[in-house]
Amino acid sequence: MENTALVSKSGINTNTNVVTQTLWVMGFAAATAIGARIEIPYQPVPFTLQTMFVLLSGAFLGARNGALSQLLYLAVGAAGIPVFSMGGVGIAKLLGPTGGYLMAFPLAAAVVGYLVAEFKSLPAVALSMIVGLLAIFASGVLYLNAFYIHNISQSAASGFVLFTWWDVIKLMAAATIYREVAKRWPRLG
User: Fold this and answer.
1) Quick check: is 7 in a domain?
2) If phi over 0 gives left and psi between -120 and 50 gives alpha, with beta otherwise, what is residue 187?
3) How far is CA 188 from the centre of its chain?
4) Which of 33, 112, 17 is nearest to 72 (CA)?
5) How far is Cα 83 from Cα 35, in angstroms, rounded to an integer?
6) pLDDT digits over 30-87, tens only?
7) Hey, how many other C-beta atoms are within 10 angstroms of the C-beta on 71?
8) Domain range spanning residue 112?
9) Looking at the domain assignment, is residue 188 inside a domain?
10) For the whole model, what pTM was predicted?
11) Residue 5, domain member (yes or no)
């Protein structure tokens, strides 16, 4: 007799699936933290690898778990663990110049996860990641403008235009990584 508490109708052990999903969520939160520490200092926003892991978390984990991984990353940083760029910790980092970018990470992961689930081709995955990046940049630039620079064109120049070349490289890397890994594992967890 089958234990229905452990095995779903599809025959998947749901306890193992929850554990696997949790480990992947934690893994992408940790990867985002590592990406924050790989940085080129610049003011007001440094060059980091964080957004590459945000995009990958959505692509591999889906909308819900991708967003959860980024919420976990933000919660760990807000709790005082040094996971943010430039050695920043706590709520103060979320309220600093990079706060708008950071706060958009869960949304970007969710958007990428949703779009990748709907459209599987490599161009569609790349376009999904562009949409995710645009969500991060829109939030970051608007936040910079509202709380720090108070000039939308200067905020866009220092918070978006400056980073386009860097983010094109990260986007190409993320799309390539996704394409190669997804051949074997389209969804993790």
Assistant:
1) no
2) beta
3) 15
4) 33
5) 9
6) 999 999 999 888 878 888 999 999 999 999 999 999 999 999 999 999 999 999 998 7
7) 16
8) 14-182
9) no
10) 0.88
11) no
